[in-house]
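Query form — protein Nudix hydrolase domain-containing protein

QUESTION: What is the three-dimensional structure of this chain?
INPUT:
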Amino acid sequence: IRFVSFSSAVNREGKWSRTFHINQLIGRWRQEGRFEDILRGWSDEQFPIYNHAPTPNRSSKAIDDPVAFSIERAALPLFGFANFGCLLIAYYHCHDTAKTMLWIPRRSKSKRTWPGRLDVTVGGGIIAGETALSTIIRECTEEASLDANFVQENIHSVGFISFPNRSATGWMLPGFYYLFDLLLPSDGSVQPQINAADGEVEGFELMDTQTVLENLLAGAFKPSSALALVDFLIRHSFLTEDTDAQFAEVCLALRQYMPLPIPWRL
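ANSWER: The structure tokens for Nudix hydrolase domain-containing protein are given below.
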């Protein structure tokens, strides 16, 4: 099978029809016990699947919306659809030691994916109808008990990376991640805190950049978060051409081209 497609009748009704029919199909597979290794992670979260952006050879008149349809998050790997998320690193500069300190959480051992691994300060998937910014602000309050107004006033959008991911059982789940930095006051007046009701994180700890690098080399981080942290170390000049013999290769690896549709606006 090279590809699958919606019928002409479904396509004529637009993205809501496509969304309805594909989720009906996936729901039936779940009820029948098919693809249990994937669908047991059912989240009841709808993730957007994008149309290709218009080009001179692809008229925008043929595309009524950047979003082609939405699909249950757990089912993304069944079709090789891209997962879009956002990752934030909260940090501060310690005046006493002149070190940059990062707030690093450890994922709950009850998490279905990467339990007990180290992570970026805050992260989350972008559900249908949300933007990267609205998602990361919401996740900051839910996962780290950070004040939404403080986050909105101090957050910085710093990039976009790709992650050509494949699961241990062979399912493809390519990822694209919006990156954010959040510089916190050096006096410790603003710190991430565990949200017991959320249950995503076991605890937060401070790490200097050398400790972060050592844990990266030891494979202690969730893979997508490891990429975001490497990007942070590069952007803040803790990893440079002088310190890493494979610097150029690492930089290119963070933004590998994947011929998949990504968010766009007319």
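ADDITIONAL NOTE: The chain has two domains: 8-79, 83-254.
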